[in-house]
Design goal:
A 9-stranded mixed β-sheet has the order 2-1-3-4-9-5-6-7-8, covered by helices on one side. About 2% of the residues have low confidence. Helix content is 22%, strand content 34%. Strand 7 and strand 8 form a beta hairpin. The chain is α+β, with helices and mostly antiparallel strands. It has 5 helices and 9 strands, in the order H-H-H-H-H-E-E-E-E-E-E-E-E-E.
Length: 205
Amino acid sequence: MKLDELLKTISGKSGIYINQSLLAEALGITRQTVSNRIKNESQVTVSELKRIEEYFKIALFNDISENKSNIIYVDYYSDVFASCGNGAIIFSDDKIKIPVPTTLISGFSDKKTYSMINASGNSMSPTIYDGDRLLVEHWQGEQIQDNKIYVFCFNQEFFIKRLSKNLDEIIIKSDNPEYRTRTINGLTTNELTLIGKIVGIYRTI
């Protein structure tokens, strides 16, 4: 969600007109910073949305508002993009902590490690869209679960695809039928590094 969209949403939820000055006060930043971020089409972070909810006493994300006792904080790598197309690179490893309801995490376990990255491309649509934030359950040496969606590195590029294992080959599938199925055979399977399994999608409102 962009800041200008957030202004409209808050106004609609609260029933009062929210201007840039009020938004700046709620976020603890200057009005000029808000104005600049709107011009730059800056996205709002989940932690900022939570702050907005608390300040204006409204529920932007019902999951967060109704399940405050079931919140975990995960590392969100805002500049890390994994491709749902032909591959993407990591731009940086800067990260922030953001709150995530455990109800959004499929098969949640407090013994697992989770993080969040961004999706880029359309090869996994309609399941995953460009710009979606993806919750990743870090891989700990488990076997690949057939037809689950994974983020992995191959040839120094990062991908998000469905994986299946067949003897000495790994089948790589896209949900978008415009993309063909690929396979990694034999010794080249050693060049594939699993990062983790996609266990949740955090789509902006």
